Amino acid sequence: MKEIKIGLIGFGTIGTGVAKLLQANAGLIADKVGAMVTLKKIADLDVTTDRGIELPPGTLTSNVADVLDDPEISVVIELIGGYEPAKSFVLRAINNGKHVVTANKALLALHGEEIYPAAAAKGVQVLFEAAVGGGIPVISAILGNMAANNFTTVLGILNGTCNYILTRMTQEGADFGDVLKTAQELGYAEADPTFDIEGVDTAHKLALLVSLCFGTKVDFNAIHTEGISSISSADIGFARDFGYKIKLLAIGKRTGDTVEARVHPTMIPVNYPLADVDGVFNAIRFTGDFIGPVMFYGRGAGMDPTASAVVGDVIEIARNIIAGVSRRCAPLGYRDEAVTTLALKPMGEIEGKYYLRFSAVDKPGVLAKISGALGKYDISIESMIQKGRSAGESVPIVIMTHEAREKDIRAALEEIDTFELISEKSRFIRIEDNLE
């Protein structure tokens, strides 16, 4: 039986999972591919730590060239993450005529426009199923079964750390800082959780999804990105009162030749399927012109689910090698010349409903002043809650608006925050309650 040899760069949690899976299911993979898929070399700076797996002598190396420059290795798996040296390693593998599998969403979000043409020039594949949603087969579905659809929306809960924190805050009334500390203790959050809690990790994934769904290049730095560190237990409680949950949502929408790409805390109705995605789970929801709304759900991270996605990409490439074909599908699913650059809609022009929270001194006329300022900017009120009365003290006033433009919301709040009766900076959260 033919043998296809693999090289792995990065022997951390996911790399260990990949090695274990390739060993444990070697016979199954051979039956499905028609060839033995063998892990020949693993490159990592640490070649002494016990990962709980027995490897053939000579498999581990601290010299990445043993993977990148070995003519017997057909596929290189990159699992070190980050921008450099991952980018240099990937481009070197491609230049040497090797196919690449990666889980590195940050690398592709920022440098895909350099990596994809390099792969095309060499006639090799770059696959990255594990970069979005861990073991959830999202990308293969976009490129395969759903490829005939024009997509209008893609929405996702794409970061398990943030979803775990918001779930605990919602279910227990806990404060953000306390839940973050617990998440770190449980291993759900990094020691430095900035990329997760500030939405950067989610934005990396959204950049890939928008490119795949809408066939457009995306400037990652132009994606509006907010995290969850400013969400309070008060916001969670008021959302519940209005029939909503707060989720960190990745939102991509296409209207004509314009695309929205934004990441921010979002209120969604409690009876929507996305609202039931709790804990460390992820979900991605698409709307296509023929397939309609479709949602994928599962674990978005972890050793085993992510290893499953990585090895799935390896199997796809191995099958193509056996069949004598290469680059049957471009990385984004479109012919290279068909990928466009659609205009990104400015956040100020986004229209939707908004949750507004004010901290105002409890005195006569304060509501009239707030509503007057909102009306000045064509913002109409749908409903309102004022909890508690304490004459002369600050109390929360919460307003849900009808459809409004974001730049009008921001202008109104900037004016309202100058009022003497307003004691704290006003807060707003966007609402998505029409997901069709």
TrEMBL record:
Q: What catalytic activity is recorded?
A: L-homoserine + NADP(+) = L-aspartate 4-semialdehyde + NADPH + H(+)
**Binding-site residues for NADPH, renumbered to this chain:** K105
Functional pathway: Amino-acid biosynthesis; L-methionine biosynthesis via de novo pathway; L-homoserine from L-aspartate: step 3/3; Amino-acid biosynthesis; L-threonine biosynthesis; L-threonine from L-aspartate: step 3/5
Q: Name a biological process GO annotation.
A: methionine biosynthetic process
Q: Which organism is it from?
A: Geobacter sulfurreducens (strain ATCC 51573 / DSM 12127 / PCA)
One Gene Ontology MF term: NADP binding
User: Which residues does the Swiss-Prot or TrEMBL record annotate as the active site?
Assistant: K205 (proton donor)
Kindly give the InterPro entries that the UniProt entry links to this protein: ACT-like_dom_sf, ACT_dom, Asp/hSer_DH_NAD-bd, HDH, HDH_cat, HDH_CS, NAD(P)-bd_dom_sf
Q: Where does L-homoserine bind?
A: E190
UniProt family annotation: Belongs to the homoserine dehydrogenase family.
Q: Which PROSITE patterns match?
A: ACT, HOMOSER_DHGENASE
Q: Locate the residues binding NADP(+).
A: I9, G10, F11, G12, T13, I14, G15, T16
Output the Pfam families linked to this UniProt entry.
Answer: ACT (PF01842), Homoserine_dh (PF00742), NAD_binding_3 (PF03447)
UniProt keyword list? Amino-acid biosynthesis, Methionine biosynthesis, NADP, Oxidoreductase, Threonine biosynthesis
ACT domain location: 355-430
Please state the Enzyme Commission number of this protein: 1.1.1.3
Instruction: Return the NCBIfam families for the record.
Output: PRK06349.1
- Specify the protein name: Homoserine dehydrogenase
